[in-house]
Amino acid sequence: MKKWMTFSLAAFFAATFFAATFFTTGARADELDPNIVQVQHDWAKAWYSTPENQQEAAFKTLVDRAHQVTANSSEKAEAMIWEAIVNSSYAKAKGGLGALKYAEQARDLLLASIKLNPQALQGSAYTSLGSLYYKVPGWPIGFGDNKKARENLEKALQINPDGIDPNYFYADFLLERGEKEKAAEYFTKALNAAPRPGREDADTGRRTEIREGLKKAQGKS
Asked: Of the N and C termini of the chain, which has fewer Cβ atoms inside 10 Å?
């Protein structure tokens, strides 16, 4: 996984937008609005299975659909979280000067979802928001803030201490801060997290990312 480039905004958004932003959530698929579930699966297909040169178009279509799902869903907080995830992924695929707009929209959606229901999707908004804060450059280019990143990622772990995503993203944050021993601890915990029913497509990709991070934390790559 590449780090955000900080020497120019254009290069910054041309870099790999951290794998997952995003982020798969821990809620069971059969407990969600079916339209949100479909966005989850379409995101996984676009992120993990679509050729890179086709991802921008795939995510652009999904941005529009995710927004409609948010407008029509009774599960507003959950829909907002997934709309944020899609916007973030589109930012990576789009690149260039226009990408920051979609990262900002993702941030605003996550903040709004927390106001509605901070426990939604097992606190996934905190995971996603924390990840944005440490991946986006700080002022004057973007809104990145390592202090806010740590606060949000640790809040996510308080809500969902055994989840694959909160442990993975906290480990990745620690690795970027040079805290390798502690990062390895959380990568290992993420790797041992229970599978998420209905999210097998996302879990497969996430575990690959976890193993790569763990190797780096252990000095094996």
From this structure: C
Locate the domains of the chain by residue range.
9-156
Fold held by 9-156: 1.25.40
Residue given tokens 């507003």 in the structure block: 76
The per-residue pLDDT for range 59-101, each reduced to its tens digit, is 999 999 999 999 999 999 999 999 999 998 898 888 877 888 9
**Closest by Cα among 42, 12, 8 to 135:** 12
Cα dihedral 206, 166, 85, 77 in deg (nearest 10):
140
In this prediction the pTM is 0.84
Q: Dig out the tokens for 176 from the structure.
A: 């970027």
Of 66, 148, 164, residue with least CA distance to 114: 148
Q: Is the peptide bond before 140 cis (omega within 30 degrees of 0)?
A: yes
